[in-house]
Every structure is written in structure tokens, then in C-alpha cells.
Amino acid sequence: MDIKQIIKNSGFHFNKQFGQNFLTDEVLLENICDDAGVDGGAVLEIGAGAGTLTRVLSRRSDRVVAFEIDRDLRPILDVTLSDCDNVKLITGDVMRYSMEQIEGLCGGKYKVVANIPYYLTSPLVMRFVDNATAAQSMTLTVQKEVAERLAARPATKAYGAISVAVQAVADVKLTRILPRNLFYPVPNVDSAVVRITFCRDKFGAVDTALFRKTVRSAFATRRKTLLNCLLSGFGLDRERAAEIIAECGFTPDCRGEQLSVEQFVALCERLKGVQ
Ligand code: SAM
Does the beta carbon of 115 sit less than 6 angstroms from any atom of ligand 1? Predict the structure, then answer.
């Protein structure tokens, strides 16, 4: 199937606003499904595009639920997915569907596999991190820097609030770098595939609101010490903040970006009741 020719023949105009940079290389698409561990089961694809990834997912899984926001792609998808009986295609914005609706369509446990536009990455990832209880994993093709941020280790430049929020409930691995010339049309940035495997109880029960506040405060000003961040973020006096830091076993001059996710969880526990 010559996807590029089908797109050209259809008179379709790429819409930059929707981040339409498609993957067409069959081997690469198979590799992404390998990274995602797609082997039967249900898969949720966000942004079907011209259906290239959807076709491979259809072959390798029992059921695919695929969202595509752009109505103009429907005639192309009707052609490219004509022999994919296990694909349920939904023309619409995935962000306008509730998590209950999405999970209802998937019917039980599912894996997310998607090549998503830059504008959608953080809101989509955080939505699934917070609410997608039936999602086993998300394997996402995203801008390379974003993938690095999601998978970042403590004390690196890429490590930030989103790294901690995601790694608190999932194991994250950057599985491959995709140079920009693998996409059609070619974008201005390179991409990477990142796999987020949910293990929601890895740190036991954590008060999500307090955890987010702790992490946000710690990263609010990267150059500030954790102690100063706690003063402004939690309105603590210096003595109490120093005590909490000592109780956690951190050095007095440590900075938020040096803490591991586990250490953030420990700090959050100590901050219970002091806000
Ligand atoms: N999966 C295809 C591939 O790999 O070639 C297309 C990937 S392309 C980077 C992203 C796709 O997501 C585009 O087709 C775009 O129209 C669609 N999209 C963007 N925002 C969306 C949203 N909110 N809901 C559903 N689809 C969306």
C-alpha cells in the first residue's frame, strides 16, 4: 500500500495545527509495536493520521480503538483501514471524551500506542497518569526533548516536575530516537519513542494533591535550595523546614532537582499536616 500516493491522490492538505507528521516506514512501525509489547489485547491509538500505525496495530492486537480529530482524513482512513475489521475509528478530539467513555470503548485493560502532536503531549500524558486506571502502558512517539524529560533521572537538566509526576506511578523508558527525516512531511524537530509502563502502587498510597504541591514547590525555582522552596511553597518557618529536611536525611543545601522520586514521596509524607 503506497500511503504517500493515496494521500496525494486524495488532495489532502496537512494541517500543521494538528501536528500532522506521519510515519510510513513499515519496519519502524513494527519496531514501535515491539517497544509497546503489542501482542493481542486491546490498543488505544490517539491520532490515526493516514492509518499507517493503525494497520500494524490491527494486525498485532485483538482490538484497536483509534481517534482522529481531522475529518478530512476520514476518506483516506476509509481506504487504508478498509480491511481492518477490528478497528473502531472515532472521528473526534480525544480530549473531549471522558476517561470513562474512552475506557468503555476499550473494554477492559488496554495499551496506548500513539504518535502524538507536541501540543497534546503534557495534557494527554497527565490525564492518563491521573485517571486511566485500565491503561497498562503508553508507548508514545513525541518530540525528543519531551521524551527525555519524561524519562529523566534526578540531577539532570531534563529532570523536572513532569518526570517526577509520571515516574511516581510508572516506569519510563526511552526506547528509540527517530530522526526527523523518518516523518512525512519532515518536521523541524527529532522525535523519540518513550514507553510509560504503569505500576500505580510502586510507592504505596500517596496523597496526589500534596505530592503535586511538593514537587511543584521544589521545582518552582530550580536554583533555590529545597529549604527556600519549602518556605515559599508551604509557608513554613526556616527552623521547621530545616527540621523536615533533616528528618528526611537530605543535606541542608540540597535542591529539589537532586531528589529521586522515592525521596519526593518521603518528603511528601513528612509534609502531611504542615500545610
Ligand atoms: N498515527 C499517525 C502516524 O503515526 O503516522 C499520525 C500521527 S500525527 C503525528 C498525529 C495525528 O493526531 C494527526 O493525524 C492529528 O490530526 C491527530 N490529532 C491531533 N490532535 C488530536 C486530538 N486532540 N484527538 C485526536 N487526534 C488528534
Answer: yes
